[in-house]
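quick q for whoever's on today - can somebody do inverse folding on this one?? i tried earlier but teh output was garbage lol. tokens:
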């Protein structure tokens, strides 16, 4: 897409970023239908969540490019997601930590839309965070 429409050279950072932004934008827009079905209105919760994921990809890519330019990071075969070497470099582990942190920070955007309109009302609520910090594993009863 980035090569054919935007004329970016293939396999470049610009092409990768354009394709990532397009994918997250389309995903956010496609989730609008589900949000409308759940809420009966069009909100921006889903689009905001998915666009925040595009922001994370942009930040990660720019940091990786900068790290390569100052010779802080040199990709190895074990760093590639398709690697079957069984080895994890510190950069790959840092990447997983970054993804978990970003999803933990932006997840409430998504959950606010879903839970705010009743999704999960008839479920048993369980909180790992409240359970470990305050001993309240079941913060509210749904029985």
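ok took a stab at it. sequence:
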């Amino acid at each position: 897409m980035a090569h054919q429409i935007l004329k970016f050279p293939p396999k470049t950072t610009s092409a990768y970023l354009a394709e990532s932004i397009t994918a997250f934008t389309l995903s956010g827009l496609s989730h609008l239908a589900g949000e409308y079905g759940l809420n009966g209105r069009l909100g921006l919760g889903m689009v905001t969540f998915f666009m925040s994921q595009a922001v994370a990809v942009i930040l990660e890519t720019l940091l990786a490019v900068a790290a390569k330019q100052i010779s802080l990071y040199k990709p190895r075969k074990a760093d590639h997601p398709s690697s079957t070497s069984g080895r994890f470099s510190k950069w790959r582990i840092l990447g997983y930590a970054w993804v978990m942190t970003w999803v933990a920070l932006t997840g409430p955007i998504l959950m606010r839309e879903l839970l705010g309109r009743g999704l999960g009302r008839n479920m048993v609520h369980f909180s790992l965070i409240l359970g470990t910090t305050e001993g309240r594993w079941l913060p509210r009863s749904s029985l």
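fwiw The chain has one domain: 13-134. also The chain has a mean pLDDT of 78. so keep that in mind when u check it
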